[in-house]
């Protein structure tokens, strides 16, 4: 692995962005922002059956991305076995409509992380699951019933160090060829946002916690 | 590959959903619905540098999922070389808050497709790029300047047959343990939707096409 300053370059040749390299970012600040805005990642790994790409929940604590699930998960079993994984988080921010089809694009923020997972055990396992609940809904780890020993034992928690990664970001309007700028074609951005929609209560008799009361209320 | 009827079972052992198998769906109708609602997929592949997970645009035509990009893309070069890929599309529909942390979940629709890509050439290459533009904005392939020979030559188009796949869907409220149902904990779903936000025009002097005028206008 080429150890390059993360402010200026990729941490490995594998993680170097080749296409549209000006959109690359190797800074932890950007990585953390992309990961912290996500609920789901895609985990790529290879086992005897081939290469797989499996979506799963994710969250960050410090210098690690965390994954969890049932002990029976083929993905977690493979990732826990020490094989190299690649975990990717992507936010789609918009469709970019240029005057030429060739210059059409998308606005996005993506983080691609390479490495080998560690299995989380002991007290930190329960703490990390609390952190997942807090990531989903701040304060809820003090409300919902925490996992009992049987549930904890049935759950695998893994973490991937945030050391070998690349972020790639596209934002803004279309980049058309100068020759195309006078074409009578509408150009611009059709933005997306992962919007919150009104909560659906299973417990109408119970007061909404703050994170529920605020859901889909802040202009979303 | 185990050839199992897609109405009843997976098309390969590799594509069989093991965890929460009651959420699996191996029907092409479901696959098409999940893929057609997507703009982006994640492509997992393995080369000499390891296993990768790369986001990219996708669209469907008939019995194939299409990918495209610059000839220089490492992902496309690998996928065009005949290596097995796994392409996954995921829609996140909500956070499911159960009374116990163990039963927290997410609502989602995901499609995992295994196979080997074919390179698209000849007339179908330009047609397939038109189909991508139509997927993004219906009618736009007749408005934007189409790719010239140089642009087409710089672009790789691949397609993956929709034959070996699994869909997995979770919808609805929390599934709590019976012993937890009386806990004084709010439970329910916090829904998400990939919402359209107002278009940002680069060409205010040009009338909006229908697909722009309707963007973020239909209750989104």
Proper CATH architecture of chain A: Roll
CATH topology of chain A: Pnp Oxidase, Chain A
Shape of chain A: globular
Task: Give average pLDDT of chain A, whole number.
Answer: 94
Q: What does the radius of gyration of chain A come to?
A: 21 Å
Strand elements of chain A, count: 12
Largest sheet of chain A: 7 strands, antiparallel
- SS content category of chain A: alpha+beta
What's the name of the CATH homologous superfamily of chain A? Answer: Electron Transport, Fmn-binding Protein, Chain A
Protein described:
- The structure is a homodimer of 220-residue chains.
- Chain A has 220 residues and is of the alpha+beta class.
- The first copy, chain A, has a single domain, classed as Electron Transport, Fmn-binding Protein, Chain A (Pnp Oxidase, Chain A).
- In chain A, 18% of the residues lie in helices and 37% in strands.
- Chain A is built from five helices and twelve strands.
- The first copy, chain A, has helices at residues 28-36, 74-80, 123-136, 149-153, 210-213, and strands at residues 24-25, 40-47, 50-57, 59-61, 64-70, 84-97, 105-116, 118-119, 155-161, 164-170, 188-196, 200-201.
- In chain A, strands 1, 2, 3, 6, 7, 10 and 11 form a seven-stranded antiparallel sheet that branches. A four-stranded antiparallel sheet of chain A has the order 4-5-9-8, sandwiched between helices.
- In chain A, a hairpin with a 2-residue loop joins strand 2 and strand 3 (50-57).
- Chain A starts with 23 loop residues before the first strand and ends in a 7-residue tail after the last helix.
- Residues 1-6 of chain A have low confidence and may be disordered.
- At the A-B interface, strand 2, strand 3, strand 6, strand 7 and helix 3 of A face strand 2, strand 3, strand 6, strand 7 and helix 3 of B.
């Amino acid at each position: 692995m080429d150890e390059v300053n993360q402010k200026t370059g990729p941490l490995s040749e594998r993680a170097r962005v080749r296409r549209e390299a000006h959109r690359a970012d190797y800074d932890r600040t950007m990585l953390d922002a992309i990961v912290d805005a996500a609920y789901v990642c895609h985990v790529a790994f290879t086992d005897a059956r081939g290469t797989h790409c499996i979506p799963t929940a994710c969250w960050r604590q410090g210098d690690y991305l965390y994954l969890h699930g049932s002990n029976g998960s083929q993905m977690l079993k493979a990732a826990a076995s020490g094989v190299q994984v690649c975990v990717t988080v992507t936010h789609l921010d918009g469709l970019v409509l240029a005057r030429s089809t060739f210059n059409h694009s998308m606005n996005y923020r993506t983080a691609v992380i390479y490495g080998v997972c560690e299995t989380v055990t002991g007290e930190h396992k329960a703490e990390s699951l609390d952190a997942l609940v807090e990531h989903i809904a701040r304060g809820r780890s003090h409300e919902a019933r925490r996992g009992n020993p049987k549930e904890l034992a049935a759950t695998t928690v893994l973490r991937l160090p945030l050391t070998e990664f690349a972020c790639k970001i596209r934002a803004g309007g279309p980049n058309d060829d100068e020759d195309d700028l006078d074409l009578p074609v509408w150009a611009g951005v059709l933005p997306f946002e992962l919007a919150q929609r009104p909560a659906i209560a299973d417990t109408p008799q119970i007061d909404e916690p703050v994170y529920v009361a605020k859901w889909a209320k802040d202009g979303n």
